Amino acid sequence: MTTPAYKRVLLKLSGEALMGDDAYGINRATIERMVADVAEISKLGVELAIVIGGGNIFRGVAPGAQGMDRATADYMGMLATVMNSLALADAMRQAGLTARVMSAIGIEQVVEPYVRPKALQYLEEGKIVVFAAGTGNPFFTTDTAAALRGSEIGAQIVLKATKVDGVYTADPKKDPAATRYQSISFDEAIAKHLQVMDATAFALCRDQKLPIKVFSIVKPGALKSVVMGDDEGTLVHV
Ligand SMILES: Nc1ncnc2c1ncn2[C@@H]1O[C@H](COP(=O)(O)OP(=O)(O)OP(=O)(O)O)[C@@H](O)[C@H]1O
Ligand SMILES: O=c1ccn([C@@H]2O[C@H](COP(=O)(O)O)[C@@H](O)[C@H]2O)c(=O)[nH]1
């Protein structure tokens, strides 16, 4: 059985996961492995848009931003996602994939601006679109950007690829007794304050009836399993 479960998906890649075992930045072997996973599903004919986080470089709420004006720190965070997007697109190019980076912040000498009809055209042409600079607004996150762009492009699902293999009753990195949900409703995830994604992203996806699959980007083959509709990770649903 080689038919994917989805025609168009929005993949949210964790910026932090890009570090691999390094303390910060982009680990070469890690980005190449992520791109190999992406190539596998692109070859299945799935239309793919990607939002990548910036936690490996800068986060507006990180200790390094303490004392800074929050909006300024957040713009730095958004620029960090532009760097990750460029690195990702370049790694995809080296792997023989065609990618286009579109930024929510005007930075035309570096990447083209986000224009929705153009993004839709690229997707229809089979190009992989990387949405950089989050939503373009401070006080948001790239999880919310994934929910927003996923809704705008008519994705059937948001695939949140992260360092843990699903949504747990508590942060599994802090609570070894936490157990994983096979599926959970948006309302329950929000009510329980589960921190795997921010509540704004959950609420937007809930209102747009856009399901989310949370799964491990570290686990080999997990992205393909998710795209094939296998029981992998946690489904967050209406
Ligand atoms: N209830 C929970 N279930 C699963 N993970 C949780 C939960 N609560 C907190 N987490 C944490 O949420 C993190 C989400 O990781 P991820 O790196 O994707 O976050 P992010 O902020 O989107 O990253 P980035 O900003 O770098 O893209 C996991 O690493 C996990 O430790
Ligand atoms: O829409 C957005 C998206 C991101 N930011 C800032 O960037 C960093 C990095 O994004 P992560 O989602 O944490 O990876 C984030 O902490 C914000 O500071 C933003 O302001 N608006």
From TrEMBL:
Aspartate/glutamate/uridylate kinase domain mapped to chain residues: 7-216
Catalytic reaction equation(s): UMP + ATP = UDP + ADP
CDD domains given in the database record: AAK_UMPK-PyrH-Ec (cd04254)
InterPro entries per record: AceGlu_kinase-like_sf, Asp/Glu/Uridylate_kinase, Uridylate_kinase, Uridylate_kinase_bac
Binding positions for ATP per the UniProt entry: 12-15, 55, 59, 162, 168, 171
Chief subcellular location: cytoplasm
Activity regulation information from UniProt: Inhibited by UTP.
GO process annotations (BP): 'de novo' CTP biosynthetic process; UDP biosynthetic process
GO molecular function (one): UMP kinase activity
Protein name per its UniProtKB record: Uridylate kinase
Its biological purpose: Catalyzes the reversible phosphorylation of UMP to UDP.
Pfam families: AA_kinase
Binding site for UMP: 54, 74, 135-142
Coiled-coil annotated residue ranges, if any: none
GO cellular component, one term: cytosol
Organism, scientific name: Herbaspirillum huttiense subsp. nephrolepidis
Taxonomic lineage from the root: Bacteria, Pseudomonadati, Pseudomonadota, Betaproteobacteria, Burkholderiales
Subunit architecture: Homohexamer.
Subcellular location: Cytoplasm
Keywords (A to Z) from UniProt: ATP-binding, Cytoplasm, Kinase, Nucleotide-binding, Pyrimidine biosynthesis, Transferase
Pathway note: Pyrimidine metabolism; CTP biosynthesis via de novo pathway; UDP from UMP (UMPK route): step 1/1
